[in-house]
Amino acid sequence: MAHTLEVRGVSLRFGGVRALTEVSFGVNEGELFSIIGPNGAGKTSIVNCISGRYKPTEGELFYRGKDITGLNPNARPSLGIGRTFQNLALFHHMSVLDNIMVGRHHLLKNNFITGSLYWLTGARREELEHRRKVEEIIDFLDLQSVRKATAGTLPYGLRKRVELARAMALEPQLILLDEPMAGMNFEEKEDMARYIVDLNEEFGMTVMMIEHDMGVVMDISHRVMVLDFGRKIAEGDPASVLADPHVKRAYLGEEDEVLVDPDDTPASRESAA
């Protein structure tokens, strides 16, 4: 299976502090790949390296075979890499619709040189096409009722959904989700988990997700990687990672206790309710 993303020996230091140490892994085409680990394990740091916010101190990053290690972060969406943030990064004074439209910016064809001619020819058609794509995303994420609302006035769970919508508007082949369910209640998590699975299965996006809800991670992920103190300590299918004694020690400090009940998944909790 072809790798969409390859991370080779990536280390990241801030002065004398090591955030990542020789982390290597690959994300397969069409995969839902999750990264877990205790607080401060380096999960967001690896996403920031992939998205270009940080440049690795050592190591290399490849996207579809292209070395992107030193690539400007603004150029990565054009390659097909989108992301959401652990802390919301919406334009709070703008409407939901306009926030999502911002995600289409890198797809616009006109520029300073061709602008005047373009407005006489294809600009209107392009705008209509962008609007159509945005409306599809609004329908997919059930945002019709708030499409004209100011983003900053929405409940937290809805704002997280709007941020996902904006990342979708980039039309990425690889989408990086940094704690997409953080701060959500149970029902909101159920909805978000369903949207993420549909992104992967219906939209065909390769998904790399950081998430703390172990039940969700184990329920929907194809493969899971575990970081601890900036090092990779486990990688594999959810069941094998869950059984790994290094993972149990990282979370609980004890080798012989279970990290989470393998039967305690969103689907099982829903059926029990």
Question: Any key phrases for this structure?
Answer:
alpha/beta, 11 helices, Rossmann fold, 273 residues, ATP hydrolysis activity, 4-stranded antiparallel sheet, 23% strand
Could you give a short description of this structure?
By secondary structure, this protein is an alpha/beta fold. The protein has eleven helices and ten strands.
Give a verbal description of the structure:
Keywords: ATP-binding, Nucleotide-binding, Transport. Residues 5-254 form the ABC transporter domain. Involved in beta-(1-->2)glucan export. Transmembrane domains (TMD) form a pore in the inner membrane and the ATP-binding domain (NBD) is responsible for energy generation. Residues 253-273 are annotated as: Disordered. This is ABC transporter ATP-binding protein. It is a single chain. By secondary structure, this protein is an alpha/beta fold. The longest helix is centred in the middle third of the chain and has 18 residues, at 123-140. The protein is built from 11 helices and 10 strands. The model is unreliable at 110-119 and 255-260 (pLDDT under 50). A hairpin with a 2-residue loop joins strand 4 and strand 5. It folds into 2 domains: 1-80 and 174-180 and 207-273, Rossmann fold, CATH 3.40.50.300; 86-171, P-loop containing nucleotide triphosphate hydrolases (Rossmann fold), CATH 3.40.50. Helix 3 (96-102) packs parallel to helix 6 (156-169). The protein has helices spanning 43-51, 76-79, 96-102, 115-120, 123-140, 156-169, 186-201, 214-220, 238-243, 245-252, 266-272; strands spanning 3-14, 17-28, 32-36, 58-63, 66-67, 81-83, 174-178, 206-210, 223-228, 231-236. The strands form 2 sheets. A 6-stranded mixed sheet has the order 6-7-8-3-9-10, with helices on both faces. The chain has a 4-stranded antiparallel sheet with strand order 2-1-4-5, covered by helices on one side. 38% of the residues are buried.
